[in-house]
Write a structure and sequence with these properties.
Order of helices and strands: EHEHEEEHEHEE
Radius of gyration: 15 Å
CATH superfamily: DNA polymerase III subunit chi
CATH architecture: 3-Layer(aba) Sandwich
CATH class: Alpha Beta
Largest sheet: 8 strands, mixed
Number of strands: 8
Low-confidence stretches: none
Number of helices: 4
Mean pLDDT: 93
CATH topology: Rossmann fold
Length: 154
């Protein structure tokens, strides 16, 4: 049973944060899917992951080798056996998605009111469904845990 980690991006943009989280996930031995509600964002992230600092092996969904990709960028349910989902740009996530994963990371721009409201709605829906969740905010160059939901085990 997985957990949802909410990351409110206040100081570093998605393009700086996502590669770090992907690298940590790969080091944990997880396969990763980055799910976005916007295919144009995935095109930009694809270029970033190829040209950024360090190499992060990945592919855009729709290729012949999606199932083998350690990191798959997609607008749909992952087909690479991902155990870690990175949710960006308001992509939907359910309690079932979280429970089927090791971890689900929901990244959102804390300065964008619509993204903030969507993240709050996702938090409410997931925690009411009994999902373990943590809420982190990027403050002064470090991550600070602001809230945690630990479901009853009884």
């Amino acid at each position: 049973m997985g957990a949802a980690y909410f990351y409110q991006l206040t100081e570093r943009p998605l393009e700086a944060t996502l590669p770090v989280l992907i690298q940590k996930s790969l080091e944990a031995g997880w396969r990763v899917a980055v799910q976005s509600g916007e295919s144009t964002r995935l095109d930009r992230l694809d270029k970033l992951l190829w040209n950024g600092d360090g190499f992060l092996p990945h592919g855009l969904a729709g290729g012949a080798h999606d199932a083998e990709q350690p990191v798959l960028l997609t607008t749909k349910a992952p087909t690479n056996g991902a155990t870690c989902l990175m949710i960006v740009d308001g992509a939907s996530v359910s309690a079932e998605d979280v429970n089927a994963s090791e971890r689900v990371c929901i990244l959102f721009n804390g300065a964008d009111q619509s993204e903030l409201e969507l993240a709050r709605a996702q938090w409410k829906n997931l925690t009411q469904a009994g999902v373990a969740a943590q809420y982190w905010s990027d403050e002064d160059g470090r991550w600070v845990k602001k809230a945690e939901n630990v479901p009853d085990q009884g």
